[in-house]
UniProtKB/TrEMBL annotation:
Source species of the chain: Streptomyces lycii
Gene3D superfamilies, sorted: GntR ligand-binding domain-like, Winged helix-like DNA-binding domain superfamily/Winged helix DNA-binding domain
CDD domains associated with the record: WHTH_GntR
Name assigned to this protein: FadR family transcriptional regulator
SUPFAM superfamilies noted in UniProt: GntR ligand-binding domain-like, Winged helix' DNA-binding domain
Domain HTH gntR-type: start-end pairs: 24-94
Signal peptide: none
InterPro entries assigned to the protein according to its UniProt record, in alphabetical order: GntR_C, TF_FadR/GntR_C, Tscrpt_reg_HTH_GntR, WH-like_DNA-bd_sf, WH_DNA-bd_sf
Record's keyword terms, sorted: DNA-binding, Transcription, Transcription regulation
Amino acid sequence: MSEGHASGAEAGDRLATVLRPVRGNGFEEALEQILRVLRLGLVPEGGRLPAERELAERLGISRVTLREALKVLAEQGLLESRRGRYGGTFVLPRPGTAGGGAAELRRRTASVDLEDALRFREVLEVGAAGLCAADRPAGERAERLREALAATHDAPLADYRRRDTLLHLTLAELSGSPSLAAQYAAVRAGVNELLDCIPLLVRNLEHSQAQHTALVRAVLDGDAETARRVMREHCAGTAALLRGFLA
């Protein structure tokens, strides 16, 4: 089965962390939530979004409103609608994002309180790591974490950041707090918009992977103190990288 057809199953349960019934303007909130799915890489490039009926039900909106939101994202070059037996709505490669450089990073941070976003991310990440370790996941939950870690090790360079995001999102989901996971997804989507401007640095990735391995080991060992420390150092590394490119 191709990645495009497998993507629905891959994203299935995880979408519950991001897609919630809208409370205000159906069109605007649906647009925001679907865009968050794309920024987090919950459906990979070339992958297919869930069927319109499922998306509309998750968001609590009409299919007409959903189609309006999907049309806007298609006009932005993010999605493509295909007809036929294997049709659906597919995620396109994002134009002009990878390695946008310092100038693009500055442009994107102009309307963002970067320090606030980075601090909030650290609070959520460190908290999730500590909660996970204190609960010491076992069985299927532990296997989910191991598989997410293995996926980052096996990832081709072009797909590394998406797999990295999914590992961190798995930790947030395993924290036992759906509210924490939802808040983390929102924050990480914004951080990913900034990270897209920075080239992938091999030495940085090697260090990051060593931290990922130590983090997962601490969580599975039930060592909450170490899990929090490693995650705090990991978040500090990302923050330093962004500040460095902005300097």
